[in-house]
Structures are given as structure tokens and as C-alpha cells.
Amino acid sequence: MWMYLGLLAALFLGLHNLCKKHAVQENEVFPVLLGAITSGFLLFVPLFLGSIYFPEYTKEIGFYIDTIPWETHGFIFIKSMIMAASWILAYQALKHLPLTIVVPIRSAGPFFTFIGAILIYHESPNISQWIGFFFIIFSVLLYSRIGRKEGINFKNNKWIYAIIGATFLGASSGLYDKFLIQNLALNPQTLLFWFCLYTIFILLVIVSITWFPNAEKRKHFKWRWSIPAVGILLQTADYFYYKALQDPDALIMLLSAIKRSQIIIAVVIGGLIFKEKYKRKKLIPLVGIMIGVFLILYS
After folding, report:
1. Which of 86, 213, 235, 266 has its CA 20 to 30 A from that of 8?
2. Among 17, 29, 88, which Cα is nearest to 234's?
3. Which pTM value belongs to this model?
């Protein structure tokens, strides 16, 4: 069951990436990110109020938000800091790079998660899983060659380093999620409610320093329908992902790889919508990544 939940998460993540590209194109990144996270947070406010005033009903339908100790709040705040840094880097990179380059680089995230799962959680990969991960990494390297044809130098482009940093932080957060869900026994809605709230506080501080005082930047901000869509789709994807992680048999390294199937939507549909170049050539490493994901699932 947890693998199907992982595939659902991948579906919503793929749609989220399309909306995210639309939201940040020629737009100010920080207010877009703040608007997206706030929109996702609003999904959980009715659940929080229901847990206070109608606890029996929210427990019955499985959306009760638990009361947690301050120590647990501290652990969730750490996750908020990690993901705020990851999103800031990723959104800035997405603003300046093609979607069909950003998403495949992000697909290297399972490799970092894979190593962490072995070292931290002692998850044991087999031969097929090793081969699958090497397929993914090799395919990402192929994308770098295609990226040069779009005028993107992978060695000298700071946005490439930004998306790599975002990928590493995102993978670290993924490993941390397993600790929060399984070791601290947090349910998905409790984790997402407090995580979104703390992330909003962090982003408000950043925006108040870097964006609000600058009249020129405020003029460049454009509100788009895709901004709330980004937050809603992301929190929906995370909900299914955390539900999958609640299964004690779930392997974080396999879930991370399953989520990479989102790139089908990003590369195929995104390439058509945003009219990015070399779509056919990008299908070759895309197939390589999908073979890697298949080998992991097959194993």
C-alpha cells in the first residue's frame, strides 16, 4: 500500500512542478514562495480548529491534529529551516533555468537519500537497487550535456549550484521525515500544520528584509492563480508521502525513488507547455531515469 501512496505523491508533485514554473517565471521568488506555503497551510486550518472544537469527529475521519510537546515543536522547526533554505535555492534556480533541466537534477535526490538510508537507517539495498540508482545518476549527467546546448554551462552557472544545494537539503529533509513520522509518531496532518506555520514565520522574516522595503521589487511581483495551486498540490503530495512513511515496512530510499516518476509530467508536459528546447533529446535520459526507478520498484 505504501508504494501506491508514493505514486500518488509523485503525481501531485509533478503537477506542483508545472504550476511552480508558471508561478516564478519573470516574478519575484520570495513572495511567490510565501504565498504558496500560506495557501497550503490554509488547507490544515479547518482541521486544527476541528481538532479543538470537534475532536471526536476529526479523530473519526482520521484528520485529528495532535497536541505535541515543545521538544517535538523544536524538531519540526528544524525541518522548517532545512526546507525553507532548500525552497529558496530551488525557486531561484527554477526562475533562471529550464524546467526540463531543473527537475532531472532534482531527480538525483534519491541518491543522497539512498546513502543516508544505508548509513542512518541501515536499509539494505540489493543488486537491482544499486543498478537502478546508477542509472538515475548517469541519466542526470546526460542532461548536463543537453543543458550546454541551451546556453547553460554547468560549471560556471550559479543557478546549477543552487539547484544542487536545494537537492541535497531536500534529500536531508527526506531522511529527517522518517525520524519525525516513525520515531516521534507524528501523523501527517500534525506535522504538516506546524511545519507550514513555522516555515511561514521564517519566510516572513526573509521577505520583510529583502522584499518589503524595496519598492522596485514590489512592483515586479505578479499574483497568479498558480501560486496557491503550488502550495495546495505540494501539501497534498506530502500528505500521501507521510501516509506512506507511517507504514513500518516503508523504505525511505525506495519511496524517494518512486517520487522521481514525477519527472514524466515535468519533462513531457512541461516541455510542451513552456516550449523548451531539445525535448526529444531529453527523452533519452528520461528513459534512463525511468529504468532506474523501475529496477528499484521491481527489486
Report:
1. 86
2. 17
3. 0.84
